[in-house]
Amino acid sequence: MTAIAERTVVELVHTPIFEVATPQPPSRLALEACGLAKHYGDVVAVNNISLNLRYGEVFGLLGPNGAGKTTTISMILGLLTPTAGSIKIFGHELRGKESKLLRRVGSLVEMPTFYPYMGARDNLKILARLVGGVSTAGIGSLLDLVGLCQAADRPYRTYSLGMKQRLGIAGALLGEPELVILDEPTNGLDPAGIVQFRSLVRGLANEGRAVLLSTHQLNEVQQVCDRVAIVHAGEVVTEGLVGSLLQAQRVMKITVSDVERAREILADLTWVRTARVEHGAIVITGEAPGPFALGEALARCGVWIGQAQRIEGSLEHLFMDLTQPSDTEEFSTSNGAAGGAANGRER
Amino acid sequence: MGGSDNAMSSNAVALHALVGMEWSKLVRRRATWLLMAIVAAISAIVPPLIYFVLGFAATDTTDPEAKASLALLRGQMVFPDAIAHAVVNALVFGIPMIVVLTAMNFGSEFAWGTIRFLLGRGEGRGAFVVSKVLAIVMWWALTLVFGVSVSWLASTVIGVIDNQPMLYSAGGADWLLFSGRFAAALLGGLVYAALTIATTVRLRSTAFGIAIGLGAFFGERVSGAGLALIDLLPIQVLIRAGPSYNVRSLIDGLDGQENPLPIAFLAVVFYMITFTWGAVRHLRRNDVLSGGPG
Q1: What pTM value is reported for the model?
Q2: How far is B195 from B93, CA to CA, in rounded Å?
């Protein structure tokens, strides 16, 4: 752990993870999942999820526990058979070509799983035989990268949760995978490990690799991902560039002289995405066309703003809007859908 | 043609790497060596024990027939009969061990979740079973060699203590019988391994794999008594083809006793292929994560 703490983020970003990186045109897709569904009897775990992941980007799959993220990833990795839908990896249909295609995919699904009686080095050696083309020096570099050199020969069963996770990440990176799929990879990592992990993931994308990152950690997505899909109850409820989603999520909190009248006015404003009354104040999301647009619109109808507070958009607001039932009073806007939570859903 | 040859060569290389991977996993596990050591220990202890206990029994009896039977049994513990009989010792003591090892080998992959990691990195489901089976075949061959060697060592010790014939007293016929028995034992142990694989993969449970594998082995030891009753059933032919054409009949067939050798051989190969194929088929058709949403 000390070794990791001593390494700077800059150093980590510039640490060559693989000797050979094959840059891919940014438009090429590493992964195409179309209409994926997984049913267990009457229980719908995943329903009609479609994802496209390009080379050189980090795509976040964000959702609460039980949203269907791991099920989706398991289908992509050929561990579960989809009830419906198709998966293409590197432009080839996955079905029937799992052995060939998945050797080029590094993955960490749920908790890392390794042989408890072997150390990190032997576990990676075992896996290297399967993946092929990995040298002993390459294994050493990976162990160094994830900070497990000191404990490399200790049995895996004696590792802490964070150390297991680090080995899981090393296992996912073994064999220079073009597509890296990580499911809740920062579980159990300490703050230094999390910072290092973020740098590592960005480094992978900068090398032209595609990274699918499943998590319920909002700040992780905000800091690392280029695009994100929010999954809830087995469905994608919104998807887009992280920057765009944040911009669309800018929040203004105002107190007004006449709340009822203000609600009527806001409902007619096209740029207002969502609006709700919260403890007597009105919370508005959306990008106003100008700095005085809101004040002008309200004042023209005789409604005066008492206090106004601008809150920068965050995935947390968006996530909560889309996935949690709201206990605030919501009202419809001219943007189409009714009420806060529903308004945010872009399908 | 060239492409097909390349693909076959590539598959052979891949399978070679997978078997190497499975062998590495086996040899790094302490239980693997412990089970082999148990076979060796029993093979070392039992022949002298039988030899000397039967020797005491022989001195106590006056019945010439009983004396002859005891002498025959004692003779199997010393050379030259011990050459071929050592295989039977290793087989009988080794089968429970191969059942335990096989169940542990497959069951642990499910229990530790490592099967997900392996399949997620592109290991084929059929290749997963086949490479494990091949690694177990290697272990079984090694265990038989080890067990037989220790058994011979025990017979040598008996020879030294009781002034009995040594290994060099064996002739060509003894070695021929030994070769046949060794081949039969190699094949026979794998039947129980294959049954254990099928059960462990189907139920994803090491304990069930061991229970069914050992149940079949010990069940066969006592099934001879039941066969008389089975004769009365209309499906007796089918039932007889099951437990009666087993590893014992294969070995007996080599000695020219009881069941005809070709049927026993075919029956044993049939069981082995069927059980292994069942395991592959089940694994191919099923999700490797337990079936809850999440």
Answers
A1: 0.77
A2: 18
CA angle, A83 as apex, A81 and A88 as ends, to 5°?
60
3-state secondary structure of A291: coil
Look at A116 and B287 and tell me if their CB atoms are within 8 Å: no
Distance of CA A274 to the CA centre of its chain: 23
- Cβ within 8 Å, pair B18-A129: yes
d(CA B122, CA A90): 14
Report how far residue A17's alpha carbon sits from residue A34's, in angstroms, rounded to the nearest whole number: 31
Interface contact B29, partner A, CB < 8 A: yes
B15/A contact by beta carbon, under 8 A: no
- List the A92-93 sheet strands across, edge first: A43-54, A29-40, A84-89, A92-93
Tell me which chain A residues have a C-beta less than 8 angstroms from the C-beta of B116. 74, 79, 109, 113
Among the partner-chain residues A66, A100, A114, the one whose CB lies closest to the CB of B294 is: A66
A99 to B124: CB separation less than 8 angstroms, yes or no = yes
**Which residues lie closer than 8 Å to B163 by C-beta, 6 or more apart?**
none
Nearest chain A residue to B24, by CA: A126
Report pLDDT for B34.
95
Instruction: Give the pLDDT band (50/70/90) at residue A16.
Output: very low
Q: Alpha helix (H) ranges present in chain A?
A: 2-6, 9-13, 69-76, 98-102, 120-131, 136-145, 161-173, 191-206, 218-224, 242-247, 259-268, 293-300, 315-323, 340-343
Residue among B34, B204, B24 at smallest CA distance from B107: B204
CA dihedral A50, A53, A59, A64 (to 10 degrees): 20
Given CB atoms, is B256 within the 8 Å cutoff of chain A?
no
**Which long-range CB contacts under 8 A does A64-67 form with residues at least 24 apart?**
A64/A216, A64/A232, A64/A323, A65/A216, A65/B294, A66/B293, A66/B294, A67/A231, A67/A232, A67/A233, A67/A234, A67/A323
DSSP letter (8 states) at residue B241: I
Of B14, B112, B292, the CB nearest to A115: B112
Q: Is B114 on the interface with A (CB under 8 A)?
A: yes
- The average pLDDT across A255-269 equals 88
Cα A2 from Cα B259, distance rounded (Å): 70
Encode pLDDT of A265-295 as tens digits: 888 888 887 788 888 888 887 777 777 888 8
Report the gap between the CA of B8 and the closest CA in chain A (Å).
14
Is A111–B113 a contact, with Cβ atoms under 8 angstroms apart? yes
Out of B21, B114, B288, whose CB is closest to A79?
B288
